[in-house]
Amino acid sequence: QVQLVESGGGLVQAGGSLRLSCAASGIRFSSTAMRWYREAPGNQREFVALITSGGLTDYVDSVKGRFTISRDTAKNTVYLQMHSLKPEDTAVYYCNANPKWGQGTQVTVSS
Question: Does the CA dihedral 87-39-23-55 come out positive or negative?
Fold first, then answer.
């Protein structure tokens, strides 16, 4: 059974940092591309970041230079390090290993 469990969300002031984690089980993590998405109230879920099994990364333009996705194969965990957070980054952040989703973790950035 595939499980993706996110953690690390919270409330932070604008300009602050957070690191999200997603612990995966039930998948061949080392060969699976992992993604982060986010969904703000009233908005559609949007792609944030991708890391392939080989470590290649991609980001939505709005987070480039501020967010970094990484993975630890030994821990079956993918991370999203977020710096210089803005109020518009406020959303529920979801981990994805197609077609499975985690339950999400709330990130709130106050101005």
Answer: negative
| Mean pLDDT of all residues in 12-39 | 97
Tokens read off for 16? 């602050």
**pLDDT band, residue 14 (cuts 50/70/90):** very high
pLDDT tens for residues 52-96?
Answer: 999 999 999 999 999 999 999 999 999 999 999 999 999 999 999
Rounded Cα distance, 6 and 2, in Å: 13
Q: How far is CA 31 from CA 16, 73, 91, 99, 100, in A?
A: 33, 9, 28, 14, 15
DSSP letters for 4-61: EEEE--EEEETT--EEEEEEEESS-GGG--EEEEEE-TTS--EEEEEE-TT--EEE-G
